[in-house]
Amino acid sequence: MWARPSLVRASVRVPSRTLHSGPVLLQKQGRDRGSPRAHENPLELNKMGYFQFDDIPTFGHMRLQKQRQMLAYYRLLANQLPALKDMHEPFTPPPATHFLSFRFVHYQGEEHPDTSKVVLTFDIKDLFRANVLHTPQAKHKFLLLAGPRWQPPSTALIQRWNDALERGEKELSTLANEEALGSVKIASSDLPHEAQNMKWCSDVLDSMIREANAEPLFTDVPLDVRPYIKSNARGGRTSRPSIADFPKEWL
């Protein structure tokens, strides 16, 4: 006698342990892969790094952090900057005798070999006005001693200086009183500390002034124009062509 299909299906029983073996295995594998489950604690999921749509995204936190920084600066501006008025001192320009400029290099929070380098710069006109060089011949000798350290505004000034040297002391004195005479740069980085390099630059300047006022004056030696000539062979730079270099009929 054949049994009905419904009775056959009802007679087949599967143990409950076998039914749950599959989901339990998937749940264990899911935890290993890091996938969240809906019935787990949201606090635990947040600790694991899952986004539960209960917070703003990363870009929103970046915007909030930027606003917090601006708010901190506004607090400084409102609370601490008014206290700086008590330390205010009026600016007093340096006198004409203080014309030496020392340049230092610092890298904040970092050690670098250039931190000991010191560059001394001053204008020739300020040195001549200080009357430390007694005669026009001494000024000429000082420029000879400066050599390539002197940076004239143009090579034409060197030729004018040599011409004035041949004409006499009066012409040389007139040319020495001009405004644009260039500057002198003295640098040092051989010593380990910047204070030592600063003292070395100052001592070199004092020695140049002392030797310029001493005999002989070398009035028969003209200034050398070769260090200031722009040449490709000497590594000089050439100016780029501009519109003014083209003929008018081409434009």
From TrEMBL:
<feature type="compositionally biased region" description="Basic and acidic residues">
    <location>
        <begin position="29"/>
        <end position="41"/>
    </location>
</feature>
<feature type="domain" description="Small ribosomal subunit protein mS35 mitochondrial conserved">
    <location>
        <begin position="90"/>
        <end position="250"/>
    </location>
</feature>
<dbReference type="GO" id="GO:0005763">
    <property type="term" value="C:mitochondrial small ribosomal subunit"/>
</dbReference>
<keyword id="KW-0689">Ribosomal protein</keyword>
<dbReference type="GO" id="GO:0032543">
    <property type="term" value="P:mitochondrial translation"/>
</dbReference>
<dbReference type="GO" id="GO:0003735">
    <property type="term" value="F:structural constituent of ribosome"/>
</dbReference>
<protein>
    <submittedName>
        <fullName>37S ribosomal protein S24, mitochondrial</fullName>
    </submittedName>
</protein>
<feature type="region of interest" description="Disordered">
    <location>
        <begin position="19"/>
        <end position="41"/>
    </location>
</feature>
<dbReference type="InterPro" id="IPR019349">
    <property type="entry name" value="Ribosomal_mS35_mit"/>
</dbReference>
<dbReference type="Pfam" id="PF10213">
    <property type="entry name" value="MRP-S28"/>
</dbReference>
<keyword id="KW-0687">Ribonucleoprotein</keyword>
<dbReference type="InterPro" id="IPR039848">
    <property type="entry name" value="Ribosomal_mS35_mt"/>
</dbReference>
